[in-house]
Task: structure prediction
Amino acid sequence: MPIQSKSPYSGKIHNTYNEHTDHEVDEAIGRAHSAYLAWKLTTFEERSRLMKAAAEEIRQNKAHYAGLMTAEMGKHKREAEAEMDKCALACDYYADNAEKFLADEKLPVEEGEAYIAYDPMGVVLAIMPWNFPYWQVIRFAAPALMAGNVGILKHSSVVPGCALALEEIFRKAGFPEGCFTTLLVSGSKVSRILENPKVKAATLTGSEGAGSKVAEKSGAELKKTVLELGGSDPFIVLEDADVEETATTAVKARMQNCGQSCIAAKRFFVHEKIYDEWLEKFRSGMERLTLGDPEDQAIDYGPMATEDLANELLEQVKKSVDKGAKVLLGGDRPDREGAFFNPTILTDVKPGMPAYDEELFGPVAMVFKVKDEEEAVLIANDSPYGLGGSVWTGDIERGKRLVRKVESGAVYINKMMASAPEVPFGGVKKSGYGRELSHLGIREFVNQKTVWIS
Result:
């Protein structure tokens, strides 16, 4: 079945690609395995040289790669180019640090000598989403390749051009054929790929439903997985926080990538003493945002990634309002062409509403008035998700105590939640398991082999 590259802004079809056949998929996996047998024997110095070349390729052709992202999933040009810069940083980070992260680790045994050796696993399948079409892939691929593994990418059908561009980046950098391969296939083919004995592990960034299916199939095949799934991140504002600063940051935290981010702040818990003032500043900031052509530097945000996603979000908002949620701002789609959704603020959100129980993947914020930090944490933890979050306070020690109570893979104090190459990334509960980035990320897809010498 053909896969189309389609603009969410204009509806224009940019390109049409043929899906790979089962035979072509099997051949690609075979080439990847053959590449692995040679690649695992290369030195860190050789791998580092090629990964540095990948970083340089990204920087030199940033506008081209970012342009594909804007065209296919509507990311604003400014954010798209920033994503490419971040990808280059991740390539450099692992090129510089992989050897240190995977150095033999001595063990304190009483007899003889013992250590942990980190060996590559082989072919790793990456199932990736459209919202950060390069960054999500690079943060897997850079550490995996530097560890001596090879990668097979099954990307979202929303971004086939970006998927092929990622293979192009590694090819132009000089990586041997088969080290990184893009497969243009539907999600229904993932199970068959996981059954291939040459595929040793899988990583998925995506929905809870997709993650459950991959975990189930990988479990049946006894293959290692890392899952980075949804999030409904809390943004806790205590009474001693700076109202102006936190309200301004909250707009940015909710609206990054037009709200289509697993670690975007989605639920805002504001102390009752500053609630009214804070909410008015937040509303004013959201109201000032402008929507339009993602190529236009003068506007703030482009459309959502697809028309279906915008309509799905609208349905979640409508059902929440029907159950009693109040619309302070937005709550609808503008009357114009394109997959747009107006920046929205909901209050009076209660359990049983989609806005409370589900992840709202788009420019919709839920604001809660809380009487104290205990109530903020109680409601923040009353969620199936636990990916990221933030606490805002004038008392750092108070913040340090509070973050220990938040059930999440990461919590930042007086800082907007974001991912970076140096910092571990991953969630708990239905936000998944395993870690990406930092030294923890590169150790997910290696055999941690114990060696003991008498």
Remarks:
- The mean pLDDT is 98.
- Residues 77-101 form the longest helix (25 residues).
- The domain at 3-229+431-453 is CATH 3.40.605.10 (Aldehyde Dehydrogenase; Chain A, domain 1).
- The longest strand covers residues 113-120.
